[in-house]
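1st attempt posting a full record on here, be nice pls
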Amino acid sequence: MAATTSSVPAGVGAYRRRRPEGRIDPGPRPPGRIAVVGGSRNRTNVALATHWRALGLDVALVSAADALELLGPEDLALGRIDVLPSVDGVEPGLLGLLLLERRGVPILNRAFGLLAAHDKLLTERCLAAVGLPRPRTGAVRDPADPLPVSPPLVIKPRFGSWGVDVHRCATEREARACLRALASRPWFTRHGAIVQELVGPSRRDLRLVVAADLAIAAIHRVAAPGEWRTNVALGGTIELAAVDEAARELAIAATRAVGCDLAAVDLLPLGGGRNVVLEVNGAADFEDNPVPEGRDIFRDAAAALGLDRNARLQA
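the predicted structure (as tokens):
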């Protein structure tokens, strides 16, 4: 099946230079508290607070409600609110991030950015708005609704993660049967399902971690034997990846398109050195990502985000 929409535009670099309104420009910050706003179920949230404290930063992992009690304009919050394990929405806390912002607290990963990353339909619209390549994507609210793309296709929750309820369908008959089987799921009842063009048949994708317009890490995720989904939660493995500048530029542009400051971007290969953006994840796990010898992904993130005046990104 033909790959998606547009190719990587020559204007990606120009787009990077346009900072979306409201995003703060990372830079060295004076002493103040840093709150990683999210839950401890997400292991990378815990690791961020632990590693950044080891750098001498005053940082804590807190809920949005606690952040409202603790933080002032001299402090900073990093939004790391994840999707619910039930994949029917986002964890509580987005409203808290909005209230912090209105109080003048600088926010990295603002509420809209996290929502745009977690809501796969909104992600597609943000990517489309700046002409980035992505799979053709639509949504259905009823199993009988017209399919927004032709098979082969993928059906998934709108707020999905971990490969939960992600299905590949080769024909319309399979897609209809899949939608009927999923229709009783709470996530389907609330939001319907995402129907997306199948880009493949690769069992391997490329994930880049982007911090403040810098790609600080890259891995390949490889599907487990007998599996096509690359999620580590489904037995997928990860390995260090070398990436070219085009992939870096695309991942950075995707992160900016949704309005996140620290996120992971999943790219799928089309061949010929081209990729499409599959997903942007504002609360991705990356504590186990392999990195080149001598690198520290948490120190690099702190340096890129301007949180540690003593940290310097290595070439």
